[in-house]
Amino acid sequence: MILGIWDGHDAGACLVDPEAGRILCAVNEERLTRRKLEVGFPTRAIEACLEVASDISEVAATTTDPAKTLTRLFPSLKEKYYLLRRKKVRPKALDPLKRAFKVSLTTWRPNGVSRALSAHALGKELSRVGLGAVKLRWVPHHLAHAASAAYTSGYSDALVVTLDGVGDGWSGSLSVLRDGKLSPKSYIPARHSLGIFFEQVTQLMNMRELEDEGKVMALAAYGHPTEPDKNPLMDLFDVEGSTLRCRLGPLRLKRFLAGELAMVPSEQFAWMAQQVVETKVTELVAGALRETGMTRVVYAGGVASNIQANLKLMELPALDELFVFPHMGDGGLALGAALARAVRSGASASFSLGDLRLGPEVSSASVERALDASGLSRQKPVCVVTETASRLARGEIVLWFQGRMEYGPRALGGRSILARPDRPELRDRLNATLKRRVWYQPFCPSILDEDAERLLERGDTPNRFMTMAYRVRPEARAVLAGVTSRDGTCRPQMVDRSYGKYHELLKTLRESVGVGAVLNTSFNLHGEPMVASPDDALSTFTRSGADALVIGDFVVEPPRS
Question: What sections of 129-160 are H helices per DSSP?
């Protein structure tokens, strides 16, 4: 067995069986420590994996650049930046200088000293969890991103694209997957990072970088569209073929962006930045497709979370198929590192993701123990699916907890908050009381795969993991009114029979409301990670104001005030 680990932003661990070609477990540390986007060593995630299998042949880890190595040697640096970035502490006078130093340091590439020091620091942590004698293998940052997408895509041939902020001194890579073999083509230096550009935009708008980029993308829908030659940010990046270059270094870039933001409303600045990302990503990929002759693309890295840019990619004439790895950011690096090592050891270059329910097992007994301890009123209906569909049909907000937890940032029917998709007032209630999100940030739908084509343009192109925007057909705007963005798009999860009980729920709901769709957002309150355990679910439910919790075969009523 190969244990993959990542001990940085959104730390986590996974367990891969190379011989069987299976991903046995994958979980991020935040779900277990209950600190969103945890940055500490993933001790609890490793323990969860070891409960599945303990015969570990090697540990796969990633990223040995000097910046990452420094935080391994001095974890307090990482913790201080985590608290500052997440706005848990008030900024201090020297913080801008510290941020500037961090940005500069992250552009440095690994060297012999940084690799040795990273190995020493990580080895000490592994010894604390009983893995000190297991071989530690390093996988470069962007190879881990590339492997995560390439080896789970189901394709044998594709262009492999990674774009993120920075890792190991690079901000992106282009590779070719041919007959299951991954061959690097080129790398994009950290200085030319689209990810850092969008992070800086996010921070300048008083949002949390590495966390609120989706809010910037959502706000962009309220900007005034202009031609690219009227956008002063567009000239910051040049694309020639498959080469991307930024005209300014990271520090000068931030000063330039601050000056432009001072001249326009926030929504217009967001629109300008979003147009840059959409334009430059599509130009880069189009150039690489011409050079390689490929017609499929697999994609990972933090920039791949920009679903509007992904929509523009999918509309490229030269592109037949696009697969975006569902845990595209650094939270997916543990799995990418493990898959890269598995394939190098001789495993097949194809690992199925299934329905992404890769978290720890949850037994019926553990559900009942948690319910007994909670003292909450519950019932066990004849059919929990029928009962849930009935509650949703009459306008209730239902918390849904079933089976193993999803891997990645999206709720996919294991840990979900559900409501009718055609009621904007339910969306507003969710925003006001449960999620406390900004008003312009939309929710997403889960849609039966057989209904997707009549509701969405290109709905015959399946997307099971909410990684891309789709245009809602005009005639479907009313039935998807609560999950459609201002620009007429949504980010759907298309649900097939492999989702079991969740698929049955959507089919049953369709019988009463006429559409096999539901508003689906992650089961958590504002600022908290998605729930992992039955205890987490019950604690969140009692604080949520939701109408019911459906957990296993039980329906739980709200506590009496």
Answer: 141-150
Amino acid at 312: K
SS3 27: strand
In DSSP terms, 25 is beta-bridged to: 15
Torsion sign across C-alpha atoms 444, 446, 449, 455: negative
Can you tell me the mean pLDDT for 161-171? 97
Distance CA(4)–CA(144), nearest Å, equals: 10
The CB density around residue 152, as the number of other CB atoms within 10 Å, is 25
First to last CA, the chain: 50
| 253 phi/psi in degrees, rounded to 5 | -60, -45
Max CA distance (Å), the chain: 65
Instruction: Output the CA angle 51-57-61, nearest 5 degrees.
Output: 85
pLDDT digits (tens, 9 = 90+) for 385-433: 999 999 999 999 999 999 999 999 999 999 999 999 999 999 999 988 8
In this structure, are residues 485 and 442 in contact, taking their beta carbons and an 8 Å threshold?
A: yes
CA–CA gap between residue 175 and residue 158 (Å, rounded): 9
| DSSP letter, residue 486 | T
C-alpha 556/C-alpha 549 separation (Å) is 5
Mean pLDDT of 80-92: 89
- In 241-382, where do the E strands start and end? 243-246, 296-300, 321-324, 378-379
Asked if residues 485 and 221 have their Cβ atoms less than 8 Å apart, the reply is yes
Residue type, 532: A
- CATH code for 364-556? 3.90.870.20
Task: Please report, for the chain, how many H helices and E strands are present, in that order.
Answer: 19, 22
Whether residue 132 contacts residue 126, with contact meaning beta carbons closer than 8 Å, is answered with yes
Query: What residue type is assigned to position 93 of the chain?
Result: A
**Structure-derived torsion over alpha carbons of residues 252, 253, 258, 262, reported in degrees to the nearest 10:** 110
Question: What distance in Å separates the CA atoms of residue 175 and residue 179, rounded to the nearest whole number?
Answer: 13
Tell me the Ramachandran region of residue 419: left when phi exceeds 0, alpha when psi lies from -120 to 50, beta otherwise. Answer: beta
Question: Which comes out higher in pLDDT, residue 333 or 81?
Answer: 333
- In sequence order, what are the beta bridge partners of 399? 417, 549
pLDDT tops 70 at residue 561: no
**Where does 153-324 sit in CATH, by number?**
3.30.420.40
Q: Are strands 493-495 and 444-448 parallel, antiparallel or unpaired?
A: parallel
Token pair listed for 272: 């300008």
- How many CA atoms lie within 13 Å of 427's alpha carbon, on the beta-carbon side? 20
Ordered by start, the domain boundaries in the chain are 2-145+334-344, 153-324, 364-556
SS3 474: helix
Structure tokens at 175: 């590779």
Residue with tokens 């940005």, as numbered in its chain: 103
